[in-house]
Amino acid sequence: MPSTSAYMVAAAAVSATLFFVLWWMLQAEENPWVPAGLAASVVMLVAASAREVVMRRALSRYLQEEQPRSARHDRTRPAEYRGQPPPPSQSEILRGLEKQSVEADVNNTRPEMHLRVFQMCGDFLQITERSLASPSISTERRLTVRARQERVRALQKHHLLAWARNSAQSLTQEAQQRARLHEKIEAANRALECIDTALASYPEEEDLQRSAAAVREFVTTSRVAHWVELAQRASFKGRYGRAIDCYRDALFYLTRAEGDHQLAAEQITREIELLRARRATHNAVETEARKARRARDT
Description:
Radius of gyration: 43 Å
Order of helices and strands: HHHHHHHHHH
Oligomer: single chain
Number of helices: 10
Helix content: over 70%
Number of strands: 0
Number of domains: 3
Strand content: under 5%
Structural class: mainly alpha
């Protein structure tokens, strides 16, 4: 096809030439530039219209010639490409997604299945968003896609919450069975990570908030119980200073924890006061014993 810019430059040159020729011929008339300008404008409009008609006809011929050529190309494609099935439709993907959802609910003890369905829902929503971005989609089709999206969003929320709930329960049970404190805390923190992941998408879910609070309460209770046990062992061995320090550590975790732990804090405070009194009595007895030994030796 000829260059559009070259064609329009030539048309502008012809129009300018006509303008100056008419202007020179009509100098005897009043305002000779008016008819000259009108004639030049008419030439430019006719040239542009003719160019548009020619381009449309050329494009039509090109498409008519290209269509059979494309069909011949498809027939010459390798057999492995010709035999491939077309990509699945949205309705087929949705049916498969619902089937996976039912299987995940049946095998509720496997949280990873819920997580897989949640990820599949995200993929489906991305596909439908791309289809909605097409300007050629009809209103009826758009409403159908929107209804499918609402259905999939409900499945997405259901399976993310199920994954977080089941994973947190499993990890919390694992933490309860651990003997060492750091193992308990590690398992409980993994449970909190699962819950926080779900809360990032659905922060208004009260069940998730209660589950997170329960896991944090378990962490606090485990730490306090650990330090109380160490304090009781030290007190039994007569290491009152060490016992007081352990009780203070337990009190530290209680004051930082959420919820009402006033009774437990008061009980630990009383134990610290009793240990201080016991230590003072023990120190006084020891002092008197040392004085008696010195007097006896002298």
